[in-house]
Specification:
The protein is of the alpha/beta class and 327 residues long. It has 8 helices and 17 strands. This is Electron transfer flavoprotein subunit alpha/FixB family protein.
Amino acid sequence: MKIKRILVYGELEKERLHPVSLELLSKAKEIFPESDVQFGIVVLGSGIGSAVAEARKSGVDLVYHLDDDRLSVFHPEYFAAALIQAVKAFDPDLLLMGATYGGEELAPALGIRLKTGVAAHCTDIRLTKDGKLAQLVPAFGGKVIGEIFTPNTRPQIASIKPGMFLASPQEDKNASLSTLDGSLLNSVPNRIRVKGVNRKELSSLPVEKAEVVVCGGYGIGSMEHWSSLEKLAEKLGGAVACTRPAIDAGWVRDESSMIGTSGKSIRPKVYIGVGISGATHHICGMKDAGLIVSINSDPNAECFTVSDFKVTGDGNMIVRNLLEALG
């Protein structure tokens, strides 16, 4: 079944299109460069004029939009209802969504309502030799990459973490606009009520924006050693990142700096990994860094397979020596 129409969920971030939306669109156009493939994007929210204008210039043929106060904050049932309306109007063969907090909730909800398959947390999408769309997802703890196919139902739905693809400039097609019917939200059960919104300001540089990232794994060993890693990142003018075991050990407060398929994908100029084994699900999130330096006591660690510089030794001792050298 040939793919002729592709729809992207244009998630918003600070009243603009979230970068992942443009990343997905660029990837889809790379895979399907044919002129007869139609591209659409859905923009939902309140006060979305600037985002809709941005979407019109993103290279799509059609922009579906709904500006409604009930969409001012993420409400999964309202957003799912509006997205389904766009899907029914555009009839896409493929629906792409960012695997963000909102996208991770919307994708399975749409899959159930539309009775179709969902491939979640994909690291890549590509066409096979026989023209089928393969959705690549790490499996068995990241030891293998599984291919997921949805051969019999439409639309195929895939969610992809931000940063997996690069957004590239697209030809401005001055896309047509189609306003979705907000009255359809009237029949949606309002089982979630927002009592307030508290925004937490980041106290440090986000890992996805840092040019230098120092990342630690379980091999760091203790909170004391983790503090040294944070000092090294600060000395280098970068950000400190982590793997899941570091969070489980309590050295890191939350998942905002976790790298990998269940965290963030980054492309810093320099990545320094300390005490990280190098499982596939982590490598997927940092393999596109400009320069990769890995420090591990195991000379056969998997992280060395993608490294430009490989250092075998006690990572904590090396970090201490670096701090002394930097003064």
